[in-house]
């Protein structure tokens, strides 16, 4: 039967050879007719260029195992517009028997990898779950660090405000209030015996503070006596002394004030939610 196929004197057999001729050459010719390069086919079908070259050259030994190689040939045929079944049959007929036997017998050897293509135009995107988890972890860590830094800055600003309130006091005012933190000091006859000179327009007055949240608060009366200084917690503070009073408030929104029972609009003295003013009846 093999002798009949090679007989050049039989026209019918020549026609058959034209239909089932070299599958590699037919694939190559179809590719050329479509103005495609091997790189074009490799990029589209995700088949290594060297495997495409082996297919067109029918270099079976340079191809992966038969199952993969046959799949490559079928996909190649579909892409260039040839009958995949006819090309697959030609591939099967031409595939060497010794390679078929070796492929079947070599059960313990792993399959050859199909390979990964590097394409200039489009790239196959493969997402690594571990990489995604790592990225999420980095984002969470970054948010945590940002919040920590922000809280530290807020605490530093509060400390700076407290220092500024203390710095605004004179040396005598600071020394007078050194022993007083959040204690209310009421004035009485002992003020006159302290030796402090009163201002000509000094008069007795009462201050009522209502603090809704911890706030830096300092009050010094006309005699130079510190009635209140430092961080004041939520509560009511009633102070008596000689007016005018020097008042410093670190957070106006947390404080309400009455002078001799009359409400004082602190917002009239506030700037950036802080107030530093003198107050008299």
Uncertain runs: 1-20, 111-121, 175-199
Order of helices and strands: HHHHHHHHHHHEEEEEEEEEE
Helix content: 40-55%
Cα separation of the termini: 128 Å
Radius of gyration: 47 Å
Structural class label: alpha+beta
Q: Look at the structure and give the mean pLDDT.
A: 78
Largest sheet: 6 strands, antiparallel
Number of domains: 2
Count up the helices: 11
Measured by DSSP, the beta-strand proportion falls in 15-25%
Please give the number of β-strands.
10
Please tell me what the overall shape is.
rod-shaped
Transmembrane segments: 127-146
Biased composition (Polar residues): 12-21
Keywords: Membrane, Transmembrane, Transmembrane helix
GO molecular function: DNA binding
């Amino acid at each position: 039967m093999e002798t009949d196929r090679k007989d050049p004197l039989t026209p019918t057999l020549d026609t058959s050879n034209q239909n089932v001729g070299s599958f590699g050459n037919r694939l190559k010719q179809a590719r050329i007719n479509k103005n495609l390069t091997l790189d074009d086919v490799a990029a589209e079908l995700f088949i290594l260029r060297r495997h495409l070259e082996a297919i067109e050259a029918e270099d079976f030994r340079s191809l992966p195992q038969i199952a993969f190689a046959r799949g490559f040939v079928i996909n190649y045929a579909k892409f260039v517009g040839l009958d995949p079944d006819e090309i697959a049959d030609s591939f099967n007929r031409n595939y060497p028997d010794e390679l078929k036997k070796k492929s079947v017998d070599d059960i313990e050897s792993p399959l050859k990898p199909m390979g990964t293509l590097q394409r200039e135009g489009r790239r196959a995107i493969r997402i690594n779950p571990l990489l995604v988890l790592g990225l999420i972890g980095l984002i969470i860590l970054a948010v945590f660090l940002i919040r920590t830094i922000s809280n530290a800055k807020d605490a530093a600003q509060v400390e700076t405000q407290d220092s500024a309130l203390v710095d605004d006091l004179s040396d005598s005012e600071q020394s007078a209030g050194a022993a007083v933190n959040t204690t209310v000091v009421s004035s009485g006859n002992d003020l006159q015996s302290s030796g402090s000179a009163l201002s000509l327009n000094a008069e007795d007055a009462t201050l009522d503070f209502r603090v809704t949240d911890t706030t830096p608060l300092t009050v010094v009366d006309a005699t130079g006596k510190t009635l209140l200084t430092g961080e004041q917690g939520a509560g009511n503070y009633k102070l008596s002394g000689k007016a005018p009073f020097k008042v410093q408030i670190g957070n106006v929104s947390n404080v309400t004030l009455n002078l001799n029972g009359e409400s004082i609009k602190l917002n009239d003295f506030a700037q950036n939610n802080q107030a530093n003013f003198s107050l008299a009846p």
